[in-house]
Amino acid sequence: MIRVAALAGPVLGGAARVAVGVLWLLEGIEKYRAGFGASDILLVADGAARNPRTPWWFAPLDAGMQTIPVLFGFVIPALEVLLGIALIAGLFTRLAALASIATLMLYWGSDQLVDQYPVMVLLSALVLAAPGAGRYGVGMFTRLSEPAAPASARPLHPRPASSSPPAALP
Asked: Where would a tag sit more exposed on the chain, N or C end, judged by fewer CB atoms within 10 A?
């Protein structure tokens, strides 16, 4: 029973990680297929600048989007594809999940509300919360996704699984 509970975090977190990764990958590919670029960035920036629901903290990003829309038109789909690949592969899992949430909050800040964004935030939060969400992926070979348990957390001499107390020393 303990073994099942120990696998629940990595399996549930891994499933959430792959699911949100697939959603990001599809978002980025769709933008590339649609020819997403500078004109789309300017459309978002202009809409955010005129929208009273846009929060104050979005203004500097909006100014940057209006100044260099070609760069943002390239970076946004590339970021989405990279997030998708990193999450699906299990590489830099926690960093990718945090970047996923931050990116979605920026999208919401510009009032770009898409139906799957709340689901993507919840899945990303689950990846952050689940212990070992990146265990079964590329990260398990590189040790880049999840740090190993510190030596102080591991017992030096594990006790046998018997229920009787240890014998007294003579």
From this structure: C
User: Is it the case that residue 104 has pLDDT exceeding 90?
Assistant: yes
Tens-digit pLDDT profile for residues 33-66: 999 999 999 999 999 999 888 999 999 999 999 9
pLDDT in tens, 66-90: 999 999 999 999 999 999 999 999 9
Can you tell me the distance from the alpha carbon of 168 to that of 170, in angstroms, rounded to the nearest whole number?
A: 6
Contact status, residue 42 vs residue 66, Cβ threshold 8 Å: yes
**Beta carbons within 8 Å of 21's beta carbon, 6+ residues apart:** 83, 84, 85, 86, 87, 88, 89, 96
Nearest in space to 16 (alpha carbons), one of 92, 103, 126: 126
Cβ contact 76:36 at 8 Å: yes
Read off the tokens for 88. Answer: 């699906």
Mean pLDDT confidence for 16-30: 96
Burial class (CB in 10 A: 0-12, 13-18, 19+), 144: middle
In a 13 Å sphere around the CA of 47, the CA atoms on its Cβ side amount to: 13
Question: Token pair 């829309």 is at which residue?
Answer: 69
Q: How far is CA 18 from CA 7, 10, 87, 102, 144, in A?
A: 16, 12, 6, 18, 17
